[in-house]
Design brief:
Elements (H helix, E strand, L loop, with lengths): L3 E2 L8 E9 L8 E13 L3 E2 L4 E7 L2 E5 L2 E5 L4 E4 L5 E4 L6 E8 L6 E2 L3
Antiparallel strand pairs: 1-2, 2-3, 3-10, 4-11, 5-8, 5-10, 6-7, 6-9
Length: 115
């Protein structure tokens, strides 16, 4: 499975990569399964979109801003992010933060927000 940039371009994220596990290899699944890894001091974009998704921590620990709440995620902690909920994942820790992300195969593009 190929390691890719988190997104093709943009300055609203840093030090994060992704791997598409299910969803870019010709599968007919109605969902995509991706693995993201955020290096220390890295973060995803602060965004919202109409599709829901699930995040499962499987490596290290990190923080998730979901709406106005901040959660610390440790191994096997799971978050459900409902449609149109602002969210961002961060790694303020010294080790990589890895998580699985499950989304609908057919989904809208995210809308970037300001923190």
């Amino acid at each position: 499975i190929k390691t890719e940039k988190y997104k093709p371009k943009g300055g609203d994220w840093t030090d994060i990569v992704r791997r598409v596990i299910i969803g870019s290899h010709g599968e007919s699944a109605r969902f995509h399964l991706r693995y993201f890894e955020i290096s220390p001091d890295g973060y995803s974009s602060f965004e919202k979109h109409r599709h829901e998704h699930v995040v499962i921590c499987i490596k290290g620990k990190g923080k998730a801003k979901i709406g106005k709440k901040l959660y610390e995620m440790n191994f096997m902690d799971t978050l459900y992010i409902s449609p149109d909920t602002p969210h961002q994942l961060r790694n303020p820790f010294k080790s990589p933060f890895g998580f699985l992300c499950i989304v609908n195969a057919k989904r809208d593009k995210p809308k970037l927000l300001t923190a």
